[in-house]
Amino acid sequence: MAEGWTQNVRCRYYANGMCREGEACRYLHQEHAGSSLGTSLRTDLSEIRCRFYQRGSCVYGSRCRFVHAGEVSASSTNNVSQNTSMASSSTTLKNSPTHINKNGQGARYSQKTSVLKKQGISSDSGIWEDSDENWVNAPEFVPAGKDNILKTAEHVHLKSYAEVLNPVAGKRVSSPQPNLSSSSNKKKLCPFKEAGECKFGSQCVYVHGDTCDLCGHASLHPQDKEQRKKHINECIKQHEQAMELSFAVARSKDKTCGVCFEVVMEKSPREQRFGILPNCNHCFCLTCIRKWRQAKQFENKIIRACPECRVTSDFVCPSMYWVDTKEEKEKLIKDYKGALSVKDCKYFKSGRGKCPFGNKCFYLHAYPDGTKADVGPPVRQRRHSADIDVLQQVILWDFLDERENRWLYGIDELDDLVAFFSDSDDSDWSDYELFFD
Amino acid sequence: MANIAAQRIKREFKEVIKSEEVAKCAIKVELVNDNYTELKGEIAGPPETPYEGGTFVLEIKVPETYPFNPPKVRFITKIWHPNISSVTGAICLDILKDQWAAAMTLRTVLLSLQALLAAAEPDDPQDAVVAKQFKENQDMFRQTARHWTFIYAGGPHKNSDFDLKIRRLTDMGIEDHQARVALSSYNWDLERATEQLFS
After folding, report:
1. How far is it, in rounded angstroms, from Cα A211 to Cα A116?
2. Region Disordered: start and end of each range (chain A) (predicted)?
3. Contact status, residue A21 vs residue A1, Cβ threshold 8 Å
4. DSSP conformational letter for A11
5. DSSP for A230-269?
6. Nearest residue to B94 (alpha-carbon basis) of B117, B68, B112
7. B92 catalytic, yes or no?
8. pLDDT band at residue A434, thresholds of 50, 70 and 90?
9. How many C-alpha atoms does B39 have within 13 Å on its Cβ side?
10. Could you give the CA distance from residue B111 to residue A334 in angstroms, rounded to a whole number?
């Protein structure tokens, strides 16, 4: 790994069409960046960051003429921390001043942007940290003249460059150990800049963050290492979640329901839900499996069994996606039970009622003051008692089937839920059957 | 008709047509009407049974609640089998009643019926007379079933002895099928069959 990380850093010589090392260069030769020093419009465009992309929605995608900063290869992202640690001794740094001096004169504008872009690419690489003798010569500090492009968003970006350099300046002047300084010293990140652009530019009282390679927002605090770390971790986590979701979609999209034979994800939006049986791995849409389990013309044993393999399951777990592995399934069911367990049981009624399902109930049995009630095992059915005969007909899990519908639409809808259950209070109990294992 | 039933039958219909059992001429499904509520099924008599070589036609009625309820199936082709009524063709098969499962299809139903022909359940009979014969006189049952297969399902085994006995009764003015039922029920005892017919 001695030299490996440099492979992810773009070669600036190559980017400007003049790398002598050729194939042997230790740095990344990638066509993406403006590859010539030419001042043609094309080149300019290819060096300007896409504003739409930065805000998260560029309709042109990879065809966009502007630079999509977040497109930087994932490996360079991963190397951010390495870069930081190695930056100060890196040869990259020694090259940077030359780079500016040499090019800062002619194609000033395109140079500025390219410089910025690079800074964005290896945002934390500290390319500039050692070049402090020269940074006063950086294009940003050379009056840009009448260049009307400066009125554009890039202008804003250029100005913010000063902010980007702040950590260096700050380090020298005020705090010798900025990373350890107390949070009171840290300026807040500018939320406008983070969301897209800040019209105050360098005049902004807030810190303009570095662009995060993962989310493309200026969300990395230049000084606050902890914040950077936290943000990157959040981004990685978000990315993982997005991956998980796309995997879930991929494994769900061809699944057909064993009852209606339709591809579940191709059903009407409201019916695009899976009904997962805990004890077997057959695939059904929620609507069908519920309908089957509520069929009254068959014995319980039949309808509570999987229509394909006849393995009995006590309940159906609704899911937006198909679950393949045991772990995924366990997690899903755990989450489901967890979501139900914070909702008040309509039969227990915070202590005012009695729940026939006792401690087998998935719902919350708690008194108004929040203390949980131990309601003991469910009432045993006694066939000779006419009163309890009704209860005999009640199965907890089917009762869940009725209620879990609501669960899917979000736990926030608790008010609706209460209304729903008070409405169904007079529902026919004989529709349900009590389940005892 | 409920949409789901028609949709599913459509899919199943395609599935059966493409299935390998159709290729082997073991089962077949045809549409009777356009709205997929009624179909005609056909199953081949399974090999090494008295039904071998015969083709049995079934009436399949798809309820609106399909697939949450089983299709109503009966034999159109007359058949001699303990679990199938020799009179109405009604079938006694658990999966067509209380053991139905929503994932079952026309194909699995037809295959189950084929299996039923190969393995009768005399303890859960639909036709008590046939079941009694099956239990008490297995050989007579097989001959009778084979004869019925020959007459009604195009089976290959002609039984001249049985034909003769039926002729004797039809000569007396008894209708052909009626004569066959009477003789089959009395183990082809001509005297007892005659007695029953004229009593």
Report:
1. 11
2. 77-115
3. no
4. P
5. HHHHHHHHHHHHHHHHHHHHHHHTT-B-TTT-SBGGGS-G
6. B112
7. yes
8. very low
9. 24
10. 40
Taking CB atoms and an 8 Å cutoff, what residues of chain A touch B99? 302
* Residue A310 maps to a domain: yes
Give the mean pLDDT of B8-33: 83
Q: How many domains does chain A have?
A: 4
CA–CA min distance B166, chain A (Å): 44
User: In this structure, are A189 and A235 located in the same domain?
Assistant: yes
Model ipTM?
A: 0.85
User: Could you read off the pLDDT of A203-256 as tens digits, one per residue?
Assistant: 888 888 888 888 888 888 888 888 888 888 999 999 998 998 888 888 888 899
Judge contact between A286 and A273, C-beta under 8 A: yes
Q: Residues of B with CB below 8 A from A299's CB?
A: 98
- The nearest CA of chain B is from the CA of A254 a distance in Å of 16
Q: Is residue A38 part of a domain?
A: no
Decide if pLDDT at A177 tops 80. no
Q: Residue A281 domain-assigned?
A: yes
Q: Which domain holds residue A275?
A: 257-331
Asked if the Cβ–Cβ distance from A260 to B67 is below 8 Å, we say yes
Separation between Cα atoms, residue A126 and residue A134, nearest integer Å: 14
Q: Verify that A217 and A274 share a domain, yes or no.
A: no
- A37 belongs to a structural domain: no
Catalytic residue among B91, B92, B120, B181: B92
Residue of A nearest to B68 (CA): A292
What is the rounded CA–CA span in Å between residue B109 and residue B75? 13
Tell me the domains of chain B and their CATH numbers: 3-118 (3.10.110.10), 159-198 (1.10.8)
The token pair at B174 is 């008894």
User: Does residue A398 share a domain with residue A357?
Assistant: yes
For A104-137, letters b (16+ CB in 10 Å) and e give beebbbbbbbbbbbbbbbbbbbbbbbbbeebbee
